[in-house]
Amino acid sequence: MSLPSSVRIVEVGPRDGLQNEKQSINVADKVRLIDDLSAAGLSYIEVGSFVSPKWVPQMAGSAELFAQIQQLPGVTYAALAPNLKGFDGALAAGVREVAVFAAASEAFSQKNINCSIGESLERFVPLMEAAKQHGIRVRGYVSCVLGCPYEGTIAPAQVADVARELYNMGCYEISLGDTIGAGTAGETRRLIEVVGSKVPRNKLAGHFHDTYGQALANIYASLLEGIEVFDSSVAGLGGCPYAKGATGNVATEDVLYLLNGLGIETAIDLDKLIAAGQRICTVLGRESGSHVARALSRLQTKELTAQKTR
């Protein structure tokens, strides 16, 4: 299959990237991050999550975020809404698109949201009805599609069943998440073949963590299978609090560098994106998780040193 001419990147850094941080991050820094991402040309930004702060403390204040960010025309500013209460909160904050999540692993579902896969899907029924009533689009996530920290290998058919349920329920797009980042390119292609028999491929997205360094390979494999939407996190921020050992999402900078090299259009400015990642990493007191950002930073440092010695 030929590569797509364009790809849509779903930036999940402000939500999935920051939700696992232990240190407190103030609203002003989150607003700056989101505005920086908008300025870099991201067309879809997952801003926050309307979940109980008891479970995910970093997502407290998501309504305040939506009130303060600069919402540019043509950019989708979305939020996670795990249930009807969360949806009502998102609606009150003026959110026009929400995401729901289910797991392909029974054990992970119990650890993450304290219910079975079937029960989690049942919870979405009233949310989907309310979303339809208010004209709110809903995106679906399926986690642990290429492995579970508790169950190990997950059958692609099991992933396909959950994805089909979410699609039939009304989710316009289903993001397939390699939560523990253990998947390989061959496994990714087989997964898409199976899930693609139940859900149209143009309704699927890839969400890869880079725990084993396989995220970019899995994205390329997905491109070959006709997938044109990928989730990523600026500076490689993130990790799942319910998946021990899972490191950050693949860095948006690295994905963009790959796509640029393949001649695939995204309309994202790499320099501005790197600057956005460096700024939030300064706030967090850490180095960027992006290979591309680190490499270009070292190159710039060498060039500056060379200029001073001339």
Automatic annotation (TrEMBL):
PROSITE patterns: HMG_COA_LYASE, PYR_CT. CDD domains: DRE_TIM_HMGL. Its EC number is 4.1.3.4. The keyword Ribonucleoprotein does not apply. One of its GO terms (molecular function) is hydroxymethylglutaryl-CoA lyase activity. It catalyses: (3S)-3-hydroxy-3-methylglutaryl-CoA = acetoacetate + acetyl-CoA. Keywords: Lyase, Metal-binding. This is hydroxymethylglutaryl-CoA lyase. It comes from Pseudomonas borbori. The lineage of its organism: Bacteria, Pseudomonadati, Pseudomonadota, Gammaproteobacteria, Pseudomonadales.
